[in-house]
Amino acid sequence: MSDILILLIKIVAALVWFLVLTLYLTWLERKESAIMQDRIGANRADFFGIRVIGLFQPFADAIKMMFKEDFTPTFSRRFIHNLAPFVAFFFTAVTVQAIPFGDVLRVGGKEIKLQVLDIDVGILFILAMLSFTVYGVLLSGWASNSRWTLLGGLRGTAQLVSYEVALGLSLIGLVMVFPSLRFSSIVNYQGELLFGWLPQWGILLQPLGFIVFLFASLAESERVPFDLPEGESEIVGFFTEYSGLKWGLYMFTSFMKVLLIACLLTTLFFGGYHVPWLNPDGFHFPWGGEWLLPHGIVVLFQIIMFNVKVIFFCWLQILIRWTYPRFRYDQLMDFGWKFLVPLSVINIVATAIVMTLLK
Amino acid sequence: MIKQFGYFLEIVKGSLITTRHFVVNMFFHILNLVGIKTKRKGAVTRQYPEAPIEVARRHRSLHRLMLREDGKPRCVVCMLCATVCPSECIFIEATEDPDPEIQKYPSNFIIDLNRCCFCGFCVEACPEDAIRMDTGEVELARYSRGDLVYDLEKLTG
Questions:
Q1: B4 interfaces chain A, CB cutoff of 8 Å
Q2: What is the 3-state secondary structure (H, E, C) of A293-356?
Q3: How many domains does chain A have?
Q4: What is the pLDDT of residue A356?
Q5: Model confidence over A4-24: pLDDT tens digits?
Q6: Domain membership flag for residue A9
Q7: Which of A10, A194, A219, B90 has the fewest beta carbons closer than 10 A?
Q8: In this structure, what DSSP letter does residue B58 have?
């Protein structure tokens, strides 16, 4: 009974963490882009006269979207048109359940894993769910029965399918180095030390795989350098016929993908929740120092470290989104098929050779 | 593929520029948040309604009519301003003044700001320096057109 309760609490907590952070990602995007461009950004939304540097802005946006007309065009396929945003939202939202937030937490003789779904095929699960989000794009593009949405949906599908290849191939090198598809054991491998002092993070063992994964996942999130499905300057995109909260759901989904990609980059390439040289009983520095900590503080350190890394990668993705102009469609396909896929294959071969030589 | 490697360096340089902007601006924002006053600010934005920008002294803003020492308007109803006005937005009613030196004074002086284009010709034309555009008032949005028809009382007051 208490196990089920703990599981439910973990599911709700992970979802709340995911959704709240996504909500504030919209705020972060506005503020960061503003500061990059020597502006101030949204700071006017107030709550009974209190403005905390615009922190109420996401709620103002949500209320605005709620009161907009929820318009379904008469020529659309109504059921699928309504279903599509929820498909995209759902398959992105479930992915967070496989991400490890921290190590085991011991409370009152119970061992609670700070991860909801500790399944053997964690990486495959997330890749599969990410592939399902194509349905959101495709269904909305087709069911709206408009040329622009159909073009956007087709482009989105082609882009997602072709970048999925590079995304999957770039992770094979990683899986070879950390011989597991389970997120918790991948993170545990990254907690070990290289040469006795360097944290064995994925980026040190798989630099090429990291670059390919970064670009492919940026393309997965369908934001500006790779925003061909949306293409605000030409076809508006697969959600042209949506308004109000359903449009908001698409927007929210794209921010959720940013956060998810930040989580994946952290978990796979930057040691997940590991703080360098922090063992379960405290810090053991390679130069000989020791700083022993109680168990609760260690877990707290891990969760904070995980969040710091995730927020850093969100920051990085927003920086990329506000720095670069977008690709042309053929450049996008060239980049995916002629650059990323060969690079990831080279990465697999190089990893295999190095691993055989070092054995 | 080789070409794309060549672009890669420039792409990284571009992101470094935006990162520099972010870091420098964030540094000054945090200094200001902590309370340290710096000459340079983190953003070039002016917080307009709370901290309005002073308009330049020469800026042509809302008109005002100048008064003599005895409180009457300086205007002698020569109609030069109404004649020169390209938008034809000045309407003056003349009344005889008992003082023979002055002869006429305006019983009403209407400027229709709906039509006014703020060219300042009326100010240039006035021989008595009776009309000026130096109030510094630039927030002239109103909820109805009638509110933008300024009469003698509003222009002198």
A1: yes
A2: CCHHHHHHHHHHHHHHHHHHHHHHHHHHHCCCCCCCHHHHHHHHHHHHHHHHHHHHHHHHHHHH
A3: 1
A4: 92
A5: 898 899 999 999 999 999 999
A6: no
A7: A194
A8: T
Say how far apart CA B92 and CA B65 lie, in whole Å: 12
3-state helix, strand, coil in chain B (%, to 5): 35, 15, 50
No. of H helices and E strands in chain B?
Answer: 4, 5
In this predicted structure, what is the pLDDT of residue A107? 81
Chain B residue numbers with beta carbons less than 8 Å from the beta carbon of A338 are 1
Q: Provide the chain A residues 49-68 that lie in CB contact (below 8 A) with chain B.
A: none
Which of B1, B11, B42 minimises the CB distance to A35? B42
ipTM of the modeled complex = 0.83
Query: Chain B interface, mutation test: which of A30, A31, A38, most B Cβ atoms within 10 Å?
Result: A38
Residue contact A319–B25, C-beta within 8 A: no
- Does B45 sit within 8 Å of A40, measured CB to CB? yes
What number is the average pLDDT over the span B129-152?
Answer: 91
Report if residue A94 sits inside a domain.
Answer: yes
According to DSSP, residue A54 is labeled T
Q: Where are the beta strands (DSSP E) in chain B?
A: 64-65, 90-96, 104-112, 131-132, 149-150
Q: What is the pTM of this model?
A: 0.85
Size of interface A-B (CB pairs under 8 A): 45
Q: What are the percentages of helix, strand and coil residues in chain A, rounded to 5? A: 65, 5, 30
* C-beta atoms of A35 and B21 within 8 A: yes
A198-199 vs A193-194, strand pairing mode: antiparallel
Q: Which helix (H) or strand (E) holds A111?
A: strand A110-113
Residue of B nearest to A334 (CA): B1
The correct CATH number of B64-156 out of 3.30.70.3270, 3.40.47.10, 1.10.10.10, 3.30.750.24 is 3.30.70.3270
Instruction: Judge: A320–B15 Cβ closer than 8 Å, yes or no.
Output: yes
Report yes or no on A8 lying in a domain.
no
A338 interface with B at CB cutoff 8 Å: yes
Residue A183: inside a domain: yes
**C-alpha dist (Å) from residue A107 to A5, A11, A185, A296, B122:** 14, 18, 22, 9, 83
Name the one residue in this structure whose structure tokens are 């054991």: A185
CA angle in degrees (0–180, nearest 5) for B23-B28-B33: 120
Residues of A in contact with B47 (CB under 8 A): 40
Extents of the domains making up chain B: 1-45, 64-156
What the block records as the tokens of A214 is 């970064």
Are A301 and A105 spatial neighbours (Cβ–Cβ below 8 Å)?
no
First vs last C-alpha separation in chain A: 47
Residues spanned by the domain of A333: 65-358
